[in-house]
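Hey, quick one: can you model this chain's 3D structure?
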Amino acid sequence: MSLSRYTFPFGGSLPRSKKVHLMRVITRLPVIAVFMVAFTAGLANGQIFVANLLSGSVGEYTTSGATVNASFISGLNYPLGIVTDGNGHLFASTYYGNTVGEYTTSGTTVNASLITGLFSPRWMALDGNGNLFVTEFSSDSVAEYTTSGALVRRLVVSGFQNIGGIALDGNGHLFVADDGGTTIGEYTTSGATINASLITGLHGPWGLAYDGNGHLFVANNLGGNIGEYNLDGTPVNSSLISGLPSPEGIALDGHGHLFVTDANTGTVGEYTTSGATINASLIHGLNYPEGLVVIVPEPSPTALAVFGLVLLASLQLQLARRAR
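Sure thing. Here's the predicted structure for all 324 residues.
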């Protein structure tokens, strides 16, 4: 029987009886099994960076919960917000230090005082143009800087009662939590108000995260839950995750997982974006954790190509043997 009947693409050239056994063939191939384990392990080997407010540090952990370095960055004066630019750089705000520092994800300090003279900076969001938006407690406003530290605008948006978290969508819109007003407002990055009460009736809204697919996740610190909302403000599930003592920061990994810091329990919990608990104490023993970022490397084109070639060769070999 000709081997050409079994080569990719399968289409109609592969007999139906063989298609039924395809997955069984794959799972019985030792080479494929080993390669797939290594491949998925590489995907899972992500990094989580957590700002520990009371210990004055940023810790590094794996997405499986292992500690890499609990004092990855130390000597900070109440670190609260943390963001990454996606190119190996972290930015951390210090609430009492009134600064934003820049560091690499490998642990090198680029500039611990990249931005100075802030007014009790809290949370941050970074847009695709290299602009950093910082919420400031003492002025109850949002300020904008470049990632090189230059001031763009002192007051982008102001007038909040107790400003909290901030998030950006892909259309140049800012979402800002007002802890005192129990609302989330929507604004343009140029400062125009779209809807100052986009989402109302919240209970101490704090951390925010946007998933890139039209959904905004909100940590209700006083309500002890995580809510999910559409960008028009309508709720998807206002209690997507509940029973949390003190949820603070939220981060998404881009693969359907949601990570939440809890200040009271000193933990980072892992959940699915549909609300299922994976591990409520994925990382524990933290000292009042606040902001966090999750970095999960995507497979390189080379890795994908190698995977495809190994899969193809192994399938052809196995099917050729079955055809004899």
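One thing worth noting: Residues 88 and 106 are 8 Å apart (CA to CA).
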